């Protein structure tokens, strides 16, 4: 299985997934005009991974801004993780937020709410 | 399909499936119940997601609004700084250039029967300021400028605008002043500066005086657009230099002369000595008498 690597652009974040280690990273700002166009390949890659392996996933989200469509896509990513976790897959989510960015912290809390996943909020300077 | 719809592809499919079930409901109750429970689960999840997304969206909006407000505040601070003289904290020449056109327009548009709509330009210069700098150094000169501008500011009305015109020269712009105000303000400034002891540190004080020239806009009320504001400022400046030549520590105001009442059109030239000679202007001065003025 190939790894995924999407470079950061003005309105899309950097996304990387390494199927060897199960390390997933999504970092930057996300407000593409067509969120599905951008996140489609991310869903595909993650779905392939959980179908083919039983390896762990360690996901890091480090976002400073995202629009509503991107939020929906993030929910869908968490859905994939949750589905994997429900069949015994090991998933850990790390939600990074800048120390004084209460809004990003709160959005992490919103996403974590009612989610049966290990979900950590991690401040950075 | 709109991009915002496409991220709901899965949910739209479920909705279409629900419609099909409604059109052709299974006959068996157990099967119907199973479909019903399945759809209810989807609905519950959709509702939870909607609540989450609303909350996340509100957060993003708050963040954007806060960022916009911070930018607006920064913009206002920058604007304010660009209109402020760094040393004295009073307005600078750029501020005058920015606001004067609107002030002039509002004077010209106003019905004079409603009251005195005018602008008074009062130019003030500290006498022998170069000597202060040469004798005590520029830091002391700066201290004097700050104290001087504070004194002038305190002597003016709140609605008056004090501008550092350059060097030791200041301009006061007064809106809608009555006839007596220019001379009253000029004399108040002259005497307060004369009496003031400027604190130049280490227990030392300095005495100063100032010279003042003033003129009002519109200069000839029957010809309101006749002299533009910059020409009126120039007239006030010329009057200031007449006050200087006439001995300093004095003020000179320029007013329309008797000639204006004879129906002739005023000249476009605004050189004070010539206008005075042809009786287009007259002076009001702290020296008491025109005859004491030196041109």
UniProtKB/TrEMBL annotation, chain A:
Stored InterPro entries: SiaC (IPR018530)
Annotated Pfam families: SiaC (PF09345)
Record-annotated SiaC family regulatory phosphoprotein domain positions: 9-123
Source domain of life: Bacteria
Protein name: DUF1987 domain-containing protein
From TrEMBL, chain B:
Superkingdom classification of source: Bacteria
Record EC number: 2.7.7.65
GO cellular component, one term: plasma membrane
GO molecular function: diguanylate cyclase activity
Catalytic activity entry: 2 GTP = 3',3'-c-di-GMP + 2 diphosphate
Domain GGDEF positions: 117-256
GO annotation (BP), single: cell adhesion involved in single-species biofilm formation
EC main group: transferase
InterPro entries to which the protein is assigned, alphabetical: Diguanylate_Cyclase, GGDEF_dom, Nucleotide_cyclase, Rev_trsase/Diguanyl_cyclase
Classification via Pfam families: GGDEF
Name of this protein: diguanylate cyclase
UniProt organism field: Acanthopleuribacter pedis
């Amino acid at each position: 299985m190939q790894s995924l690597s999407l470079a950061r652009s003005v309105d899309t974040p950097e996304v990387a997934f390494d199927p060897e280690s199960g390390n997933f990273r999504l970092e930057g700002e996300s407000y593409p005009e067509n969120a599905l166009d951008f996140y489609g390949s991310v869903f595909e890659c993650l779905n392939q991974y959980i179908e083919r392996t039983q390896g762990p996933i360690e996901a890091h989200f480090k976002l400073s801004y995202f629009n509503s469509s991107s939020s929906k896509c993030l929910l869908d990513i968490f859905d994939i993780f949750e589905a994997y976790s429900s069949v015994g897959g090991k998933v850990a989510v790390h939600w990074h937020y800048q120390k004084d960015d209460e809004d990003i912290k709160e959005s992490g809390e919103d996403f974590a709410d009612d989610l049966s996943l290990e979900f950590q909020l991690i401040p950075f300077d | 399909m709109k991009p915002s719809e496409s991220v709901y592809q899965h949910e739209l499919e479920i909705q279409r499936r629900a419609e099909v079930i409604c059109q052709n409901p299974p006959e068996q109750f157990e099967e119907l119940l199973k479909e019903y429970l399945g759809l209810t689960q989807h609905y519950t999840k959709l509702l939870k997601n909607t609540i989450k997304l609303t909350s996340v969206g509100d957060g993003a909006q708050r963040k954007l609004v806060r960022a916009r407000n911070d930018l607006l505040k920064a913009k206002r601070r920058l604007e304010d700084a660009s209109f402020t003289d760094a040393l004295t904290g009073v307005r600078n020449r750029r501020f005058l250039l920015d606001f004067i056109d609107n002030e002039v327009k509002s004077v010209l548009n106003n019905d004079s029967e409603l009251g005195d709509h005018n602008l008074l330009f009062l130019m003030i210069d500290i006498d022998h300021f170069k000597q202060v700098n040469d004798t005590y150094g520029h830091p002391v000169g700066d201290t004097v400028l700050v104290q001087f501008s504070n004194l002038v500011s305190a002597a003016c009305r709140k609605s008056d605008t004090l501008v550092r015109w350059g060097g030791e020269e200041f301009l006061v712009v007064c809106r809608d002043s009555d006839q007596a105000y220019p001379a009253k303000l000029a004399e108040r400034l002259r005497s307060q500066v004369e009496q003031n002891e400027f604190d130049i540190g280490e227990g030392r004080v300095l005495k100063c005086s100032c010279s003042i020239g003033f003129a009002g806009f519109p200069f000839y009320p029957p010809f309101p657009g006749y002299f533009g504001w910059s020409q009126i400022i120039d007239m006030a400046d010329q009057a200031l230099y007449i006050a200087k030549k006439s001995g300093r520590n004095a003020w000179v105001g320029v007013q329309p002369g008797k000639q204006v009442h004879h129906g002739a059109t005023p000249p476009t030239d605004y050189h004070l000595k010539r206008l005075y000679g042809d009786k287009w202007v007259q002076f009001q001065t702290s020296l008491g008498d025109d005859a004491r003025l030196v041109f």
